[in-house]
Amino acid sequence: MKQQASRSILPLDASATKFDVVGIGNAIVDIIATCDDEFLKQHDLPKGHMQLINTEQAEALYQAMGPGIESSGGSAANTMAGLASLGGRAAFIGKVADDQLGEVFRHDLTAAGVSYETAPTAGASGKPTARCLILVTPDGERTMNTYLGASVELGNGEVSQETIAAAGITYLEGYLFDPPEAKAAFFEAARMAADAGRKVALSLSDGFCVDRHRAAFRSLIKGGVDILFANEEEICSLYETTDFDEACRQVSNECRLAALTRGAKGSVIVFEGEMIPVAAEPVSKVVDTTGAGDLYAAGFLYGLTRQLDLETSARLGGLAAAEIISHMGARPAVSLAKLVEDSGLLAA
Amino acid sequence: MKQQASRSILPLDASATKFDVVGIGNAIVDIIATCDDEFLKQHDLPKGHMQLINTEQAEALYQAMGPGIESSGGSAANTMAGLASLGGRAAFIGKVADDQLGEVFRHDLTAAGVSYETAPTAGASGKPTARCLILVTPDGERTMNTYLGASVELGNGEVSQETIAAAGITYLEGYLFDPPEAKAAFFEAARMAADAGRKVALSLSDGFCVDRHRAAFRSLIKGGVDILFANEEEICSLYETTDFDEACRQVSNECRLAALTRGAKGSVIVFEGEMIPVAAEPVSKVVDTTGAGDLYAAGFLYGLTRQLDLETSARLGGLAAAEIISHMGARPAVSLAKLVEDSGLLAA
Prior knowledge:
348 residues, alpha/beta, 9-stranded mixed beta sheet, 5-stranded mixed beta sheet, 12 helices, 20% strand
């Protein structure tokens, strides 16, 4: 195993925690269908992005789209499922309704080995479990349309000091900034983690999401984020620049450790002002990019919590991302631990 | 287009009908997960077969199985989705509940281009939409565990003379013999089709299903089935023999046209005592055999309704089956019409 030369990057004492990471995010079931680019234009869907839709929009879009498959999703939940598949100790906090899709979400997450204790909302009266209508174009790019449903009911009450303190890292998805209640829970979780001497990781989630919450994100990053995840577009949006290198420079002034993904160009790790470029894992055919960033985060976090060096951690992220984009859906189709073993990446 | 030399095999006048085929079957959403052979043994699941399970068994098995994906299924419904994807005019009759999985089933079938008018059962009080817990082993074989739920509510009332008369062929899945109400509807549909001068096709569905209903199937085949679909195991079970050639001889005495599938060995068409062997379509990797028979039937029926010769019809069946076993789920992931076009199978 490639261990850190210096163990000081993120001092994480696994023996002191029950979980390596607890993820907090919107609890979503994905409904995935293929379409052509023309369909996206016709329905005014922002290609490659996530947009929020209301009940009426969700019904109309579902009506219009082709036959789908359903697969549990949600950004942070995908990351936790990936972490568990790698052999990490993962927990998740997020809200489903007491309905069939909620049951599917709960089953898939717990069957993946993730601890998931958040109670569902009361069924009949409230909103149904959140769903994301995902349209995949022939180039493998996904365009996401999220009906938040019951996931907006996640509030402070759901985030316990006990669970946060039980995990070495609290991982927050930026999408949580959209529902106001969840945003409050988000800040509460970050505070609890800091109080307990734990680390806070944040994923910026989506360029549009950064647009909506830029100031709040920047304040949080400066104030209390230990590990930042973003793709090229998100980090550029955060610093309102079109120059990736400039964005890297800016983030290095505000955050000790950032993992920035660039699709086929791999990723760049920014650590204490140093930039470490890491190549992407080759993929023979990109089927569906849904979950690529989520699974990269899973691999990187797994590496960090195993005290591996930054480059190896980033390569684990690339390996997990490569698996997820080779098939439909954002949850691993094979054991990632086995994939890592077969890759020889962690061989002495 | 390869047209029949003689048009007498099944005189079908497309201009006289609204649909080429109406399929009647259990309306089921598949929940598909991978497992190893050991899991099947531990849970006493009959590999490669379909077994019926009750509510408690369904809950226990779902609890035990790994993360899944959901995909609309049901044997006859899969065949109708395949027929529509090939460009055929398809309708379906089957019963879902007024719940989320029922909504998914309805969406996927209608979005595939299949006419589906059967009303759902009343929601809150009754049984939920049927689901099939499908375990796929590393060899691609699927083992199916069906909770029939709301699909048992399909009764005579749902099968209208109007819909049956509107289709050239009424296609019935053998699984319908399991719920007593559906079995009655099944016979009613066969009678209506005969009365209207339409054709009746039957799929034997599963070897165990044939065991449960052998006498009734044989009586129906002799009495009023124009086209019989079965795989090797099913036809052997029907005639209680281990010799496929013997089963072919027996079926040729009782049914004018039978399409018998043999997996990688292709299929044998039995027509008026003659046996026509047809090679299978090559498949680079078998991922999940769910729906192979259903899609073979779709291709074969498409050929028949287009007045194509028997061998071409069987090859269309093989092409559709090859597509479905190359991915998870029993509904086409690509346009089968496009696949047929690219294959050059129908080129002059």
